[in-house]
Amino acid sequence: MAAAPAAAGSGAGRGRRAAATVAAWGGCGGRPRPGNILLQLRQGQLTGRGLVRAVQFTETFLTERDKQSKWSGIPQLLLKLYASSHLHSDFIECQNILKEISPLLSMEAMAFVTEERKLTQETTYPNTYIFDLFGGVDLLVEILMRPTISIRGQKLKISDEMSKDCLSILYNTCVCTEGVTKRLAEKNDFVIFLFTLMTSKKTFLQTATLIEDILGVKKEMIRLDEVPNLSSLVSNFDQQQLANFCRILAVTISEMDTGNDDKHTLLAKNAQQKKSLSLGPSAAEINQAALLSIPGFVERLCKLATRKVSESTGTASFLQELEEWYTWLDNALVLDALMRVANEESEHNQGASEENGLPHTSTRTQLPQSMKIMHEIMYKLEVLYVLCVLLMGRQRNQVHRMIAEFKLIPGLNNLFDKLIWRKHSASALVLHGHNQNCDCSPDITLKIQFLRLLQSFSDHHENKYLLLNNQELNELSAISLKANIPEVEAVLNTDRSLVCDGKRGLLTRLLQVMKKEPAESSFRFWQARAVESFLRGTTSYADQMFLLKRGLLEHILYCIVDSECKSRDVLQSYFDLLGELMKFNVDAFKRFNKYINTDAKFQVFLKQINSSLVDSNMLVRCVTLSLDRFENQVDMKVAEVLSECRLLAYISQVPTQMSFLFRLINIIHVQTLTQENVSCLNTSLVILMLARRKERLPLYLRLLQRMEHSKKYPGFLLNNFHNLLRFWQQHYLHKDKDSTCLENSSCISFSYWKETVSILLNPDRQSPSALVSYIEEPYMDIDRDFTEE
User: Fold this and answer.
1) Distance in angstroms (rounded) separating the CA atoms of residues 673 and 724
2) What total of structural domains would you count in the chain?
3) Which residues contact 75 (CB under 8 A, 6 or more apart)?
């Protein structure tokens, strides 16, 4: 009796399959309609109804249709694969079928990612497309996840070799067929399961590569705390696996970027922060915390980042890994380039051996040094990226302590000349489709990642002095002693056992390569940012003099004036650095005047400043603050600089200050404020705060009003400024905002900032220091709602 329903069900299933087959052929007795089957399969894939898998067709029908459509027998193979992959199967036949399918897809994928696209162009429906359309992707996901199913208390097992074949086929399909990666990304349980496959060395690289691609398109960030036994998984990785795992971590610990410019406005960021406060920590923050809780994780990253090429994996294991890489197309292109370098060096060595009568050693047994170096570079750039993100996260102080303890900085200092900033050889490796100057090449990417790490490490943190060696720290102490000023407390507290060793510290090495950098180099921006971060925070005379003595100011002025730099990014970074270098420093202004020693040079300098105030406003702010301090000092040296320096004389003129103030307010609006241009608002406030100190605030506001009228737009500037200051209060008076940056950059207490803004926003039209007193009633527009939900 029990068998009857099963038989009926089976018969009904055959009936449905036959009906579907007839429908696909365009009705009983009709001729097959070209593309009709594929169209229905595609529709079924989108809706989940109707034709979705090869198993819904008969083998006879698929064989007959394949003769016309040239599907390479893939639907029939999928039909066999389905039949041989049931729960009680031993999977031997299943693996044999996968071995037949794999080459049909791998050659196509190889052609797809190279310039040899003839195969995919000649075929209307590529093999990978057919494989996916007939349900191959979903079937492989089911097969891979069989170990999650238990039968009578025992979990099913599949071999590592079979897992590798499944992963290979899935990856090749993702490469060639649009939408497959996104569909896999939607299967959260599958994505989490993939992490468990990394426990095996045999399937690690294939799994990691597929996960990286999936996470790259996943709309919602995966949470690492949902990965089973994450701590054990990561702790059991060898150093080679950990370095590759960092490629995945790069996606999981970085905040997701919307890619929409207006979402980078401060209005949008503030709205997002309010939303985040109610939702709790983001997935990226949770993932960072999960990684930092793994014992020894940061220490192992530091060892990877600082190990020398000679300490990396041996030739045999490295060659084995490269051979595995060859099956993974994003790395195969790199491998091609590596092998080209290897062949060049091998031919060179062979020629030398023949001339000397020496036996030739095979490349397989003697790996070229250039390949070892490139291998290490590709590892290090991933590791440095992860460390950099952790340094900028919520646990920044914890990461800082660990990085210092595990001697990351002295380790990088030892690698600087031979690996990080090594000289390019004639056969320097570049990625497929790129050139040596492309920012995507491993050499260049490593340099940029290294500079970003230094910037994050130094920014507003006392550990920045680890970038120096013992002699350089002594030099800082001597500078303070000679100037008769207290030594910087952070210098005194620096653990001398953790600083750089050798003749030069990392900061000095960076300055040396910075001064040699070609004018058009993209590194200039990152170099200037890294050095500027060392100066950020409370102004230190000793730090400034340390850099001034090494010719930094003259180098910056040469780049701005003599090379007439055109890059806006580089100019901005150089102006910011120059401002920090000169702020409150009389010696710096003397050096400036000595270099800019003609009116012609000074006019070029002013032209660069005035060409974009968004880029140069931090320098304008620093010079304005310095002028104010110098004017209140009684000192012959200061008086001499005030009387001779062209820049100070220029900034001291009220028309100059009013011109800067007018333009700074005019180029920004609440809706367009970003982290980059909000400095214009703060610089305009600095000018007005200093005017308030001298009881000249009403004069400056009156002059702004006159400038408005002269432009025939009464009220447009002051209304805008009123809205900007209202936003300033919302932005900077929020409880989670750190006001110390404003205090440190200006040496003006934050309370004075708040008071000045409140005075300017006073609604009393009788107040001589209130903005509303200078906006005529017909032009008043100060209550505009600029909130962004």
Assistant:
1) 9
2) 2
3) 54, 57, 62, 65, 66, 130, 134
Residue 639 covered by a domain: no
More confident residue, 512 or 63: 512
> What pTM did the predictor assign?
0.82
Would residue 379 count as lying in a domain? Answer: no
Other Cβ atoms within 10 Å of 331 Cβ, number: 19
**CA–CA distance, 454 with 462 (Å, rounded to integer):** 13
Q: Which of 250, 257, 194 is nearest to 226 (CA)?
A: 194
Closest Cα to residue 195, out of 163, 170, 227, 171?
227
Q: Is the separation of the CB atoms in 308 and 380 below 8 Å?
A: no
| Residue 541 domain flag | no
Check the CA dihedral 410-235-227-159 and report its sign: positive
Q: Quote the mean pLDDT of the chain.
A: 82
The predicted structure's pLDDT at residue 318 = 54
Are 346 and 363 in contact by the 8 Å Cβ rule? The answer is yes
Supply the pLDDT for residue 8: 34
Write out the two tokens for 512: 């040396």
Sign of the torsion angle spanned by Cα atoms 507, 513, 518, 521:
negative
Q: What are phi and psi of 420, to 5 degrees?
A: -70, -50
What CATH number does residue 128 fall under? 1.25.10
Residue 686 CA to residue 660 CA, distance in Å, equals 12
Q: Which domain holds residue 159?
A: 34-217
Amino acid at 672: T
Q: Is residue 189 pLDDT above 50, yes or no?
A: yes
Residue ranges of alpha helices (H) inside 467-612 are 470-482, 489-493, 506-516, 523-535, 541-548, 552-557, 568-582, 586-595, 599-611
What single letter denotes the amino acid at residue 618?
M
Q: Please work out, in degrees rounded to the nearest 5, the angle formed at the alpha carbon of residue 7 by the alpha carbons of 6 and 13.
A: 90
Least confident of 8-22, 488-502, 553-567: 8-22
Instruction: Tell me if 355 is assigned to some domain.
Output: no
Helices (H) and strands (E) in the chain, counts: 41, 2
Q: Contacts for 655-662 with beta carbons within 8 Å, 24 or more apart?
A: 657/624, 657/687, 657/700, 658/700, 658/703, 658/704, 658/707, 660/613, 660/617, 660/620, 660/687, 661/687, 661/688, 661/700, 661/704, 662/704, 662/707, 662/717
Q: Which two tokens stand for residue 569?
A: 């990014």
